[in-house]
Specification:
- The chain is α+β, with helices and mostly antiparallel strands and 417 residues long.
- The protein has two domains: 158 residues, no CATH class; 170 residues, no CATH class.
- The strands form seven sheets. Strands 1-2-7-6-3 form a five-stranded antiparallel β-sheet, with no helix packed on it. It has a four-stranded antiparallel β-sheet with strand order 8-9-10-11, with no helix packed on it.
- The chain starts with 31 loop residues before the first helix and ends with a strand.
- The N terminus is likely disordered.
- Bound molecules: fe (ii) ion.
- The site of fe (ii) ion (FE2) has 10 residues, from strand 21.
Length: 417
């Protein structure tokens, strides 16, 4: 299929029908991001005015078995659960879609924030909804479908949370059940596979939805949006987590595997057509007893930049039954902050620099600057930075978002390079 593909870079922050922005991780020099941003930016304004229309030949509606609980605090549709597990139909568009535009735009994100009458607390906990917009012959076909992770299926079957989500932990009937859950945490079997963070198309055409747990790598059909099964990594690198936003091109899949036992990160690469990640190199942490959270990371043509934030993974918080203000993490300003630069070809860390304390979810863009002889003189990496204020994590509780009254109450962030 000749398609347009965009990866999710902010799937955490908005519900599926509002996630109509762009893959900003593409390198500026490739021109891909800017070109598509301009094209899609015009459509975006139109898409906001689209409405569902009845298209009997194409509708595939499966009524939701549950009625969403009424919450008087909910005042924004972005934070309400999807009403149906699955829907597809043609949308009415104001204006015109260019006839040359043909392709499918995929996004995922949290879309269901309750099971039965239990409402989740945090934005990141929502069970994943996969959304598509298919452009062809001036028409726009949209659809969404729940991603059938083990966590989602178990919750639907048992009418309760059964896996450890971002902030939610299964309620245990007794102490022994809690101990059993802890033992399963060590093996990773109790961790969620709720792939609500990103969608990538591998160089071999497979489309994979992702989250921060490695087991939450799920292969989907980009046409039917069906969940086809788990993407099984065939290597023996182990570990339970990885960056939620790998950098994926037609030639490679690059990601970071944080090492919680020996604080550091493995930088790994996977070629199209394989399920085997190979180690490019390793970065040891410069500060702290645990690696910093790596939700995303920047890559340039020749280098991988490994960010070491003072917001670090925390084993104690992983074990807790109730969330802390920083959830699975802890803030260690005394451990300082660093950026490590690894050569993709050699795997060697060419430099590690201390930088001001920072908090970011998403790196946006990265590229190299060269002198007139073609030698790399600098690496530019942009990110959305929250002024080293970790409160953004707790501010993304649904209760806070649903109380939105038109005033921006979230902590400020800015673009830094
Ligand atoms: Fe994200």
């Amino acid at each position: 299929m000749d398609s347009l593909w965009f990866s999710d870079i902010c799937g955490h922050h908005v519900s599926p029908f509002t996630m109509l922005d762009f893959d900003q991780s593409c390198h500026r020099k490739h021109g891909f991001s800017l070109e598509n941003k301009l094209v899609f930016g015009r459509l975006y304004k139109q898409a906001l005015t689209i409405a569902r229309v009845v298209s009997p030949s194409q509708l595939a509606i499966v009524p939701s078995p549950d009625k969403e609980p009424v919450d008087p605090d909910q005042n924004h549709v972005a934070w309400t659960s999807v009403k149906q597990e699955r829907w597809e139909g043609e949308l009415v568009v104001q204006g015109e879609i260019p006839l040359w535009l043909k392709g499918t735009y995929l996004r995922n994100g949290p879309g269901l924030w309750h099971i039965e009458d239990y409402n989740f607390r945090h934005l990141f906990d929502g069970y994943a909804t996969l959304v598509k917009l298919h452009f062809e012959d001036g028409r726009l076909i949209a659809g969404h479908r729940q991603i059938e992770s083990e966590a989602y299926k178990a919750a639907k079957k048992n009418k309760k949370i059964c896996f450890r989500e971002f902030s939610e932990v299964p309620k245990h009937e007794n102490f022994m059940a809690y101990v059993g859950d802890l033992s399963k945490l060590l093996s990773g079997s109790s961790l969620t596979d709720n792939a609500n963070t990103g969608v990538v198309k591998l160089g071999d055409g497979r489309v994979v939805c992702l989250t921060e747990t490695q087991k939450g790598s799920l292969v989907i059909d980009p046409n039917s949006l069906e969940t086809l099964g788990r993407f099984e990594y065939s290597d023996s690198l182990g570990g339970l987590i990885h960056s939620a936003h790998p950098i994926v091109t037609d030639a490679e899949f690059l990601t970071l595997l944080p090492d919680l036992l020996k604080p550091g990160y493995l930088v790994v690469r996977m070629e199209p057509g394989t399920n085997e990640r190979k180690v490019i190199g390793r970065v040891n942490c410069s500060g702290g007893a645990a690696p910093g959270w790596v939700h995303s990371f920047p890559v340039t043509q020749h280098y991988v930049v490994v960010p070491e934030m003072p917001l670090r993974y925390c084993a104690q918080n992983l074990l807790r039954a109730e969330p802390t203000p920083l959830y699975k993490f802890q803030w260690h300003p005394q451990s300082k902050a660093y950026l490590h630069v690894m050569c993709k070809a050699s795997g060697k860390v060419v430099t590690s620099v201390e930088v001001p304390l920072f908090v970011t979810f998403h790196f946006i863009n990265a590229y190299e600057e060269e002198d007139e002889d073609g030698r790399v003189t600098s690496i530019i990496a942009d990110c959305c930075e929250h002024h080293a204020d970790t409160s953004i994590l707790d501010q993304l509780r649904l209760k806070n978002l649903r109380f939105f009254k038109g005033e921006d109450v979230l902590p400020d962030a800015s673009l830094i390079s």
